[in-house]
Write a structure and sequence with these properties.
- This protein is mainly alpha-helical.
- It has a domain at about 190-285.
- It is built from 11 helices and no strands.
- It is elongated.
- Keywords: Antiport, Membrane, Mitochondrion, Mitochondrion inner membrane, Repeat, Transmembrane, Transmembrane helix, Transport.
- One of its GO terms (cellular component) is mitochondrial inner membrane.
- It comes from Salmo trutta.
- InterPro entries: MCP, MCP_dom_sf, MCP_transmembrane, TXTP-like.
Length: about 325
């Protein structure tokens, strides 16, 4: 009973904190503002960074079992541009863009909702609670948005490398996937996606919370310069890449056009290890590192700046 009461108290804090913020307590972000700011940040970010996501996915799908099609990042870009033009590097953008806006909205909305209930009496969120709130946000975005979005994106990119591509566009591709595989066809690799997104956001929000607390010191309402926010975001992004790239590789394989070869997430991991070795779990790390660091930095900068603007026009206290 005592353990349950402690767990319950973790996410149930007095709601009067926001009203008391001017007295030196940390100001809270309303979940509605977080949803709007997160959606805007996600849409802008993906338009900037998508080519690196495309290259990362192609390298992860390029299995050693067949002779590798690409010799590296540069060769992947060269072959894609030669065969499909510069626009080829943006194949699958529409599916990711349609999902990135609600994904970021869900992520930040859930995180702020949970963190508002997990702060102490001074309105401060410690690193451990930041990790748990990030985990909750990551799992929610994985189930609601990321898994179907990523499955469609991976199938689009994989389809382009086929001799006779069969998807003519976003709506046609989604219609064909559902027609031939049902709704379950858009939820391939759900377990791997939940593990990936949950660990991703747990790591990122843990690092961001730790760095913010260190930077603000005894002043919870100390303003953070956008450059500092971007730097913290890049560090958080790098930490998440090194922490869960193997899960990202497994997720990508489970969502590709040859996903039928794997009976489960565990079976996929075992087969990759058996046929390709440990190094295969880190395929695409370099392009993913560049994209994720830029991604997280941009998202947090835009998110924080949009929240500042919303605070001037949308009074929630």
């Amino acid at each position: 009973m005592e353990g349950n009461s402690k767990f319950t108290s973790l996410f149930h804090r007095p709601r009067c904190l926001a009203a008391a913020a001017p007295g030196g307590k940390a100001k809270l972000t309303h979940p509605g503002k977080a949803i709007l700011a997160g959606g805007i940040a996600g849409g802008i970010e993906i338009c900037i960074t998508f080519p690196t996501e495309y290259v990362k996915t192609q390298l992860q799908l390029d299995e050693k079992a067949n002779p590798p099609k690409y010799r590296g990042i540069g060769d992947c870009v060269k072959q894609t541009v030669h065969g499909h033009g510069v626009r080829g590097l943006y194949r699958g953008l529409s599916s990711l863009l349609y999902g990135s806006i609600p994904k970021s909205a869900v992520r930040f909305g859930v995180f702020e909702y949970l963190s508002n209930h997990a702060r102490d009496e001074a309105g401060k969120l410690n690193s451990t609670r930041g990790l748990l709130c990030g985990l909750g946000a990551g799992v929610m975005e994985a189930v609601v948005i990321v898994c179907p979005m990523e499955t469609v994106k991976v199938k689009f990119i994989h389809d382009q490398s086929s001799a006779n591509p069969k998807y003519r566009g976003f709506y046609h591709g989604v219609r064909e996937i559902i027609r031939t595989q049902g709704i379950r066809g858009t939820y391939q690799g759900l377990t791997a996606t939940v593990l990936k997104q949950g660990s991703n956001q747990a790591i990122r929000f843990y690092v961001m919370t730790s760095l913010r607390n260190w930077y603000k010191g005894d002043n919870p309402n100390k303003a953070i310069n956008p450059v500092v926010t971007g730097t913290f975001g890049a560090i958080a992004g790098a930490a998440s890449v090194f922490g869960n790239t193997p899960l990202d590789v497994i997720k990508t394989r489970m969502q590709g056009l040859e996903a039928h070869k794997y009976k489960s997430t565990l079976d996929c991991a075992v087969k990759i290890m058996r046929h390709e070795g440990v190094r295969a779990f880190y395929k695409g790390t370099v392009p993913r590192l560049g994209r994720v660091c830029l991604d997280v930095a941009i998202v947090f900068i835009i998110y924080e700046e949009v929240v500042k603007v919303l605070n001037t026009v949308w009074k929630t206290e």
